Structure formats: C-alpha cells, structure tokens
Amino acid sequence: MNPRHPRLPFRSLMASASALGLVLAISPAAGASTTSHPAPTRASVEARAFAAARAALKHLSIGQHATDHRASGHALLSNGTSQVNSTNWSGYADDNSAGNTYSVVTGSWKQPTISCSGFSEQLAAFWVGIDGYNSDSVEQDGTLGECFLGFTFYYTWWEMYPTNDIQVVGESLDAGDSITASVVRSGDSYTLKVTDSTHTSNSFSTTQTCSDCSNASAEWIAEAPSSSSGVEPLANFHSWTETGATVTSGSTAGVISTFPNDEITMIDSSGKVKAQPGSLNSSGNGFTVTWEASS
Questions:
Q1: For residue 240, which of 224, 222, 252, 228 has the smallest C-alpha distance?
Q2: How far apart are CA 83 and CA 70, in angstroms?
Q3: Residues 132-150: what's their mean pLDDT?
Q4: Is the predicted pLDDT of residue 120 greater than 70, yes or no?
Q5: Which of 7, 180, 198, 216 could form a disulfide with 135, with the two C-beta atoms 3.0–4.6 Å apart?
Q6: Which domain holds residue 221?
Q7: How many domains does the chain have?
Q8: DSSP conformation letters of 74-92
Q9: Quick one: average pLDDT of 137-146?
C-alpha cells in the first residue's frame, strides 16, 4: 500500500510466520495418527488463509509516497504532461505546479484479476485520492488485490490523514466488479465513497475531517504497497483501466488533462519498469496501466 517515505503492508518475516502458522494449524503433528483426522478441505484451508491475510491488513497503509518521486526521471511530453518515475506508483497525478488546490476527484474501473505466483505475498492497490503526491496528508479510497499463501483476496478500503491507516470495508469484492470511487472536500470535511455496483455490500461512504490537509494534488493510481523493509512485490494485475475521471480545482471542474498532470511509471531500484501507464485518452479522462514485473 507516509507520503514522506514509501511504506506499507506486510514484512516478509510476517508472511513467513503466517505461512508457518497456517501449515502447523492444518498439518497433523509429527508421529500422530493421520487416520483419525480427515484431510483439510480446500475451503477450510482458504478460510484460514483468509483469516491470516485479513489480520495482516492491519499493518497495511496505502498511498504513502516519497516526496522525491521526481529524482529518478523527469521529461515533458508533447501534450504538456510531465513524465516521472516512482518506485511504488503508476498512473496520473494532477499537481500543484500552477498553485492548484483540489476539492473533487473521481474515477471508475473494473477490478483487475490478480494472478498469484507461488506462496509469497503480493499486492496491488487501485485508488483515487487527494494529496500524497507532494504533501504529507492523504485522503484516498479504492480497491486492493492480495495474494496470500497462493490464494487471492479482494477488498474495498479508505484511508484518511492524519491516522494514515487503511480501513477495510468490503471483503466480497471480486475480479470484474464495477467500481466507482471519489473523494469530495467541502471546507475541512471530506467524503470518501466507493461503490461496487456488482457486489453492493462492498460499497461505502464515510465523512472525515481534516483541518490541515494540503489538497495539493489529485491522483488516479495503481500502487505496489511497501513495508518498512521497502516496496513489496507487485501482484500481477495484467492491466488496470481507469475511466471517466473528473477533478475540480477552485471553480474549475474538468478531467485529468485540464490541470498540470504527471504521467507516473513504476520502476524498481535499477530502473526496470514494473507498471507502465499508457497515454491519456482523447477525452483526457482515462488511461490504462499495464503490469510488467512484480519486483
């Protein structure tokens, strides 16, 4: 999944401990008779994996992005969009290079299918938000795909400064669900809303308060969450298509291309591309990010 330093979810040690705990929980003790204990079903194993995965989300924080994101590259594209690199974000951000502050950001997408490889933990978050790109405050919501012990789980969530802790709401999200997400500010009040029109129980709306949020950027992002040890493996989400994006700054309501915007490519520490955004569409309100590598 603070903007000051790339941080986020699970440590590899935590995953290993969880995996070991799960194996011990479902395996017969050494020397014990296996005839009196029926083999665990896939459903029971998945249920225990889900419980462990859900508990691990307490350590997840999304939208935390280093303020030195421009250091690894900066170019101006022909359409006026700035091109930058990041170690944990891919997508677009409207910035405050012209002094803009933002009050509304919206977007829509279909939840991508997450493909898990092996038993390692892998994550991919998709969200819209205000702040986090060049400020310490974050006001964001969206969806999350998680690989845990070979199983795939999906959630809806929100996160709000100053706590900056992920708040999971929906646990029945599935690949292909139609999602609309928004953050709307009125003074110091922020309404964060996610609608899953396919499985409506994952939908939510919450109003939070922040008196010192910067409102200095608007974002549409696919993210590789990070832990204290660095950026975690990015789950293979194949592609994520953001559509119908809107944004408001001051009295001007527009789309991504209405305001100074940055196209963000996710790279690893050696410069290899992990997730590549395409160009904005002709309406300036949508794009596709393509997964390239997990780490």
A1: 222
A2: 9
A3: 91
A4: yes
A5: 216
A6: 51-291
A7: 1
A8: EEE-TTS-EEEEESSEEEE
A9: 94
Q: In whole numbers, what is the pLDDT of the chain averaged over residues?
A: 82
Structure tokens at 142: 């969206």
Q: How many helices (H) and strands (E) does the chain have?
A: 2, 19
Model pLDDT, residue 255: 98
Contacts of 190 by beta carbon, 8 Å cutoff, 6+ apart: 130, 139, 160, 183, 184, 207, 208, 209, 210, 213
| Beta bridge partner(s), residue 245 | none
Instruction: Specify if 22 maps to a domain.
Output: no
**Strands, E assignment, the chain:** 74-76, 82-86, 89-94, 102-110, 122-130, 139-148, 151-160, 167-170, 178-186, 189-196, 204-209, 218-223, 226-227, 230-231, 239-249, 252-254, 261-267, 273-277, 287-291
Residue range 66-75: average pLDDT?
A: 41
Q: What CATH number corresponds to the domain at position 144? A: 2.60.120.700
**pLDDT surpasses 60 at 78:** no
Question: Cβ of 284: how many Cβ atoms within 10 Å?
Answer: 18
Q: Flag whether 129 is in a domain.
A: yes
Residue with tokens 């929906």: 170
What's the first-to-final CA gap in the chain, in angstroms?
15
**Global confidence as pTM:** 0.82
For residue 25, being part of any structural domain is answered with no
Are the C-beta atoms of 120 and 15 separated by less than 8 Å? yes
The 3-state DSSP class for residue 163 equals: coil
